[in-house]
Amino acid sequence: MWGVADRDFIAEFLMWASLCMVHLSKLAEDLIIYSTSEFGFVTLSDAYSTGSSVMPQKKNPDSLELLRGKCGRIFGDMSGFLMTLKGLPSTYNKDLQEDKEPLFDAVDTIGASLRIAEGVLSTLTVNEAKMKNSLTMDMLATELAEYLVRKGMPFRETHHVSGRAVALAESLQISISELTLEQYQKLCPLFEEDVIGVFDFEASVERRAAIGGPSLRMIERQVEVLRKALSQ
User: Residue 92 has what pLDDT?
Assistant: First the structure.
């Protein structure tokens, strides 16, 4: 009775396909935002974008917008099929013929979406200088807190010290990297001359070296893990 009516394998595929498309949709949204003139962090290839019919200087991220839209389509395949399953009794019922359309549509859609996403990522240009110019020292406020943790102070206390440093810099209309050692030591005597080393964006990233962290070494490790998984 259960065997002939079982369609869990289709439901599970649709669930995983929906989740995969959610991630693709979020990635597409990030790239759409980062490709705007307000950010300018990336430039999309002409092969995956189109010009505006009204504004010739504008480049529309059509491929990414379509990827974002396809997420709802696959989620619809999944939710629609689950609604078919939920009301069925045991054993085979003709309603189960409705498993084909959402499954085949999801397979075709996610396959095309992954190929398009690969094309977008492999052909876009990352504007490194624009991204670096957008960095501000206040982004490293947490580094001040972690600096004091390395000096022996609990994070629950260093967090407040870092906040006071940010407030002081804002009141003086300067960045936190421009505060003097004397000003830092008034906030906390644990600050020493090496505090200046905190204000290094690349060093900040590389300190995040736990598994899953953003350091270059960890990213290269994760890429290798994924490559091995895909080769099996």
Answer: 86
* Phi–psi pair at 151, nearest 5 degrees: -90, -5
pLDDT at 57: 66
At residue 5, the pLDDT reads 80
Contact of 146 with 158, CB cutoff 8 Å:
yes
End-to-end CA distance of the chain: 36
pTM attached to this predicted model? 0.82
* pLDDT at residue 59, as a whole number: 82
Residue 33 carries which side chain, given as an amino acid letter? I
DSSP the chain: -HHHH--HHHHHHHHHHHHHHHHHHHHHHHHHHHTSTTT--EE--GGG-EE-SS-TT-EE-HHHHHHHHHHHHHHHHHHHHHHHHHT--SS--GGGGGGHHHHHHHHHHHHHHHHHHHHHHHH-EE-HHHHHHT--GGGGHHHHHHHHHHTT--HHHHHHHHHHHHHHHHHHTS-GGGS-HHHHHHH-TT--GGGGGG--HHHHHHH--STT-SSHHHHHHHHHHHHHHHH-
* Segments of the chain scoring below 70 in pLDDT: 1, 53, 56-57
